[in-house]
């Protein structure tokens, strides 16, 4: 057989050149072809004499190599070769049309009229209750909701309030509203400051009230062993311990190392039930304590805390990392009450509120109090931002406190909140006044021992001296920009003037 006549085009990819004169070619497996196209011969032997031939062009050779792949892939054409080309077997028949491969669909729907439905021919009269009962239930539920909503709305008492004062400090420190509170007793917290009327501690700047603590001099602390505010005629307390401080320098004790300021409305503006709003930036700086509180105008039920204390807001000056987030970004509000200082379960009436992505010294916030014969409610910036809410319940604070029958020494604990006029709100049913100040340190537990390098211990015999010796650690934080002072922009107070809120005739003045 002449190789030039039967040589297919290598570019088609179906031929292969070989160098042997005789080759047996295996055709495609019959199992892979349709039955009607299988070849009758499994192999073909072809004898081809070697003869020179003209090589194909480089383009053809490239096409040949590009199309052919597999184990018989040839190398490049040489100038002279002889070979055999394999012819592609017949192609399988095309697949059947797609529609022929789809499964046959038969509807399973029940045809109308093929099933007997006797319920449609004769309706059961009882079935009407299947509609009536749910409808009545829904209407009754809506009625109950409406009644409860209306009852709740009616139960909210909208009291009438009369303005006591509204001060923006544009006229300075108004003496008809404010008095300087001058004491050296530590304000029941064992604080380290003496509060003064010194203009370096309380002053007006840019139409705003500023309360800023300052340090005493080393010379003053070394030379002073007695501070007697009573003899000076300046003490605003009638408790001797708040007015006189005597120390022994040889016992490593000193008088108050800090001067600070505190304003109050005790002699001019007191309320029994009402509202208070304070716009302020609180003090930042280590061991500072911003205070917005209400104190009893008289200790009617006994000395602190028997006559109560309302903390509208107290905040530490330490930064936000202090003690797991108890720094200047958190304000705490609570009530102090109890038969004496050893039994004061204030934790039952306390709450906190964090400033959003900031600290309370960075911008002004509004601290609000609402106090009625039924509850005390404290909020920050808006009424929805509640700090704490305490409802006065039957049994009063004596029941809430769950006090033991006796002290640790065996003596009987007496209930101080009995007598004419008392009730669930006692001791928070008497007139209170407002006080604003900045405290420093203290031994009452506001600053936990061993936290953030606290330089004194609450049980130390010389906590003031320990604090003073570490002034190089904490004093720089008071001098940072925007720190070391509480700034008050506005204060307003309202007295509840309905429901006999100002009537104290039910109380017996002699206890």
Automatic annotation (TrEMBL):
SUPFAM superfamilies referenced in this protein's UniProt entry, alphabetically: Concanavalin A-like lectins/glucanases
Matching Gene3D superfamilies: 2.60.120.200
Membrane-traversing stretches: 127-153
Annotated GH16 domain residues: 148-499
Pfam families attached to this UniProt entry: Glyco_hydro_16
Keywords annotated in UniProt: Membrane, Transmembrane, Transmembrane helix
Classification via InterPro entries: Beta-glucanase-like, ConA-like_dom_sf, Glycosyl_Hydrlase_16
Biased composition (Polar residues): 13-23, 42-60
Residue ranges of the region described as Disordered: 1-73
Protein name: GH16 domain-containing protein
Protein source organism: Sporothrix bragantina
Phylogenetic lineage: Eukaryota, Fungi, Dikarya, Ascomycota, Pezizomycotina
């Amino acid at each position: 057989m002449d190789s030039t006549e039967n040589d297919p085009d290598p570019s088609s990819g179906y031929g292969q050149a070989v160098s042997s004169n005789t080759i047996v070619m295996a055709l495609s497996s019959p199992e892979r072809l349709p039955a009607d196209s299988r070849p009758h011969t499994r192999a073909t032997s072809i004898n081809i004499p070697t003869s020179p031939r003209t090589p194909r062009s480089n383009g053809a050779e490239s096409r040949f190599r590009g199309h052919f792949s597999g184990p018989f892939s040839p190398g490049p054409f040489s100038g002279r070769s002889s070979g055999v080309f394999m012819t592609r077997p017949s192609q399988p028949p095309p697949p059947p049309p797609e529609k022929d491969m789809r499964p046959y669909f038969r509807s399973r729907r029940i045809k109308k009229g093929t099933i007997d439905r006797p319920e449609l021919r004769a309706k059961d009269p009882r079935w009407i209750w299947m509609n009536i009962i749910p409808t009545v239930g829904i209407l009754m539920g809506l009625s109950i909701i409406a009644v409860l909503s209306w009852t709740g709305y009616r139960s909210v008492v909208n009291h009438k309030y009369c303005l006591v004062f509204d001060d923006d400090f544009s006229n300075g420190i108004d003496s008809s509203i404010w008095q300087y509170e001058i004491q050296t007793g530590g304000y029941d917290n064992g604080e380290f400051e003496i509060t003064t009327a010194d203009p370096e501690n309380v002053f007006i700047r840019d139409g705003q009230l500023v309360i800023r603590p300052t340090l005493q001099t080393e010379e003053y602390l070394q030379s002073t062993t007695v501070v007697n505010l009573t003899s000076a005629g300046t003490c605003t307390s009638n408790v001797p311990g708040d007015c006189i401080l005597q120390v022994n320098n040889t016992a490593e004790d000193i008088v108050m190392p800090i001067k600070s300021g505190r304003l109050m409305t005790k002699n001019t503006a007191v309320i029994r039930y009402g509202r208070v709003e304070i716009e302020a930036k609180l003090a930042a700086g280590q061991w500072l304590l911003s205070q917005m509180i209400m104190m009893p105008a008289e200790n009617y039920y006994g000395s602190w805390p028997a006559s109560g204390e309302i903390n509208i807001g107290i905040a530490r000056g330490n930064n936000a990392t202090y003690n797991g987030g108890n720094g200047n970004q958190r304000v705490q509000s609570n009530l102090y009450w109890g038969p004496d200082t050893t039994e004061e379960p204030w934790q039952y009436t306390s709450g906190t509120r964090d400033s959003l992505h900031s600290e309370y010294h960075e911008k002004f916030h509004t601290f609000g109090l609402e106090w009625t014969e039924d509850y005390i409610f404290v909020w920050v910036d808006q009424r929805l931002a509640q700090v704490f809410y305490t409802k006065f319940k039957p049994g009063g604070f004596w029941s809430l406190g769950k006090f033991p029958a006796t002290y640790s020494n065996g003596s009987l604990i007496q209930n101080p909140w009995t007598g004419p006029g008392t009730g669930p709100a006692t001791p928070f049913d008497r007139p209170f006044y407002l006080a604003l100040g900045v405290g420093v340190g203290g031994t009452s537990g506001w600053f936990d021992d061993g936290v953030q390098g606290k330089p004194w211990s609450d049980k130390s015999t010389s906590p003031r001296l320990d604090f003073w010796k570490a002034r190089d650690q904490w004093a720089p934080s008071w001098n940072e920009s925007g720190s070391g002072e509480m700034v008050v922009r506005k204060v307003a107070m309202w007295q509840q003037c309905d429901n006999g809120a100002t009537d104290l005739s039910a109380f017996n003045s002699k206890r």
